[in-house]
Amino acid sequence: MSTETTLQKLRERFPNAIQNIYPFRGETTVTLPRESLLQVARWLYTDLHFEMLLDLTALDWLPREPRFDILYYFLSMQNNARLRLRVQLASNDTNIPSLTTIYPGANFYEREVFDLFGITFNGHPFLHRLLLPDYVTGHPLRKDHPLGYEPVEFTHTYAEIQPGKPNAVAPPKPRRLIGSVGGAVTELPLTLGEPATPWSGGQSETLLINMGPHHPSTHGVLRVALEVDGEKIVNAMPDIGYLHTGIEKNAEYKTYLKAIPLFDRMDYFATFFNDLAYCLAVEKLMEVDVPERAQVARVILCEVQRIQSHLIAVGSQAMDIGAVTVMTYAFREREAALDIFEMVAGARMMTSYFRFGGLAQDLPLGFSDAVRAFIQMIPPRLKEYEDLLNKNPIWLMRTRGIAEYTAEQALAHSVTGPMLRATGVNWDLRKASPYSGYEQYDFEVPVSTRAKADVLECYYIRMEEMRQSIRIVEQALAKLEKTRGQPYVTSNRKVAPPPKQELQSSMEAVIHHFKLWTEGITPPVGYAYASVESPRGELGFLVSSDGTPKPHRVRVRTPSFANLQTLPMISKGYYLADLVGIIAMTDIILGDVDR
Amino acid sequence: MPVDYLPILVMIAIVTAFAVIALTLSAMTGPRRPNPTKLSPYESGMPPFGSARRRFSIKYYLTAVLFILFDIEIIFFYPWAVLFRDLGWFGLSAMGTFMLVLLIGYVYVWRKGGFEWD
Amino acid sequence: MTLDPIVITLIEAVVKTIVVIVALLTAFAYLTLVERYVIAKIQSRIGPNRVGAIGGIALLQPIADAIKMIFKEDFWPSQADKIIYTIAPGIAVGTALLAWAVMPLHPSTEIFGYRVDFFIADVNIGVLYLLAIGSLGVYGIVLGGWGSNNKYSMLGALRSTAQMISYEVSLGLALVGVLMISGSLSLVTIVEKQSFIWNVVWQPLGFIIYFIAAVAEVNRLPFDLPEAETELVAGYQTEYSSLKFALFYMAEYINMITVSAIAATMFLGGYQGPFGILPGVHWLVLKIMFFIFVMMWMRGTLPRFRYDQLMRFGWQVLLPLALANIFITALVMLVVGA
What we know:
A: alpha+beta, C: two-stranded antiparallel ribbon
């Protein structure tokens, strides 16, 4: 179903609700009044098969009134359609109905918007701060939030920072709240020895345990508050924000180009994907063409990195279940991938190699050989892991039937990536909405054939995806040979600097260079969303421009953030020992979750 | 003979001395710079919820009871095994009867879900 | 001058005990190095190669580790039960060492016209003694977990207790077959009877059951749940530091040596060579090293069981098998003997 028919149906069904339809760069934004939001969303979900609330965020146009744009981005996998709803809120009335009853996945998103923008979602089961500690005052992503000091008080204490801020208030009692998805909620104390009531009310002999943020197997600084009965999990509540560094806020104070290194720090095992999605969004906003060679290079680097990221996912999952050897083997292979990244970008992890319209520089000599050696090395090594795991009865016992969830549950919680494909949903952006020329490659999307996903199924999907990535890289290497000597970055001088030799002969080139280096790029007013299939799912960037050289807002839709939401649901009733395997299955990167 | 056990007593004494020396040594050497955070129980870097000493799940208790049952059974097995050659078929039938009674209990526990840990 | 036989026995016991303890501690120290090295090789890493390295192996590493452990801060958590918390590692290491009192190490020989027995004590209930001491070992862990007042420690200790007592049943039953063949509870007698054919030939099933149960008894992969690092941080050892931590570690490795030595003694003829070739302590050491290598190999290969799977395996697979083994042995012995 095309966007036109969707809009047609929307007009017919809700003739009075639509305030405005704004098409821009191939995306459609429909503006609604707050009152009809729930109605329209429910109708989209039931009648038009928009199964997933992909993203929910807000924009703050400070001097303007109504000040806030609340953006809901819906995805229909069945029709391969996307639709954005926008609700405008005035600065003195920031209430909006919650969508959690229709899309349970809205839970974390609404909490995040509440936390960072101060928008109140009426009807949300647990509307508390998500990323920031409770004692923080203000909402940092608002344009009028005072800057200075640390955005989040880590090295300085509250008492040191607070008096320096306008509207200083007395520090609240330090408590950190943990919420549940649709379940009971409790307040957990921060002071030693204070009793805590388990969620289940304390009738049964349950024990409350903290797992993380400082724990060997929570894959970073994830905190999970657990209620266990013996060894069995009664409740598991993820508590995030320990790695929140305000990347989205920081990006608003950098030029478009200088924001790239910030995004490397989000999903630090998939840096190319972060950069690529951001570059694609800016390229979409500015309508820049990317030359063939750059596209092929991007595909190769991304697929090598997908292999690298899945190696870590599989290796750390095996380690969490006790097979440490698989982890050391996987990290051995990963070194070879990092060598390739070092070769092109000079950095092994924080690559920052992609630029708007292409690459930062041409691929180095010997790149093709290094990649070819890498993809030849990988298949026998994958076989090695499978020899260790696939027929191992203990491994099968520990993974088969653990954390079962269905496609409906996954879709409802906005899950994407291997976790979604493990439920049998065939959805991969490289096929569904190809970018960077993925339509030219011959590869398959591994999809589970079982009714329910579990830890083992996710492992199989990741192993198979690595093999498919190798296929893509093989084809891309052939293409790369054909594009030898072609430009690696766009010739659009508003985006990419002219080559050095041009500067000596052309005044225009000098002006372009000067503009780019002093001011940066200035996209037109509007916003554009571009997404890539990262190793963890759909990674999307919404770049909003107000016509200045700095982004008005960069919103990142990270896959780990949405995938982590499923944790309370999928871990309930399993064992404490399973939880580490389940966290490893979701393959979250805390930099990606907390940003 | 009781005198056979004398070396064991000697060993117990020496081993106890070793343990005491090691524990004293560890208390004497090394720095001593305690602070409240260091001395608080480790719970993944967060202040712990409540106390760790509380009633724990009944299933552990069940395991202990099962253990006592079967461990006593083993004690009966040992002298029987040593004298098995002399006891012959009579020994086997006697132990078989004893085992049968225990097996009934074992099957009962199994059927009642005593070996299910969920 | 003639000494009272009791005094001679006492002096002999003191000397032997000290020799055995020193040997065990040295073995423990170097076992940590061997383990680190073997696991490193399995996992295609380099392993320790810095402290006093000869040929890429850090031969002085254990000494460096010991010195470091001694000079680490030793603290008592504020909510810990101080006495229990302190004595727990002592109990763990004490029981681990005590098992060696009845282990025959070498055939008795005449030295300068004086008969020397290479065991500390030959008691007529040797096997029973081993099991009894082995059961006491669990106290170290349980008290350590309880005394720390830490939830991870507590869970680790509970798991550990449940696991160890569950597998002790199968372990004890696996040895019954050997006792039926040997007709004695004295380890010395059992070894002497295996001078030509080892018990493993008659007791293959019993041997396998024993080995599995023994790996579970010493909390090694795939049964290392009590200290499952990925979920329980370090299990009952979480709150321990300095030499107290080292004592737990020591107990664990000595237990590894002990169960290997029991396996060698009960099933593989102890100090007896194959077909009676050159009996001596070297065979025992070789066999122990073999078992320990297998345990390290398992650690480098297998993932970890989950608690319920482990308990189910112990009670529903190993226990019936061990009982069946006893009856098969009895039937075969009666039919062949008759």
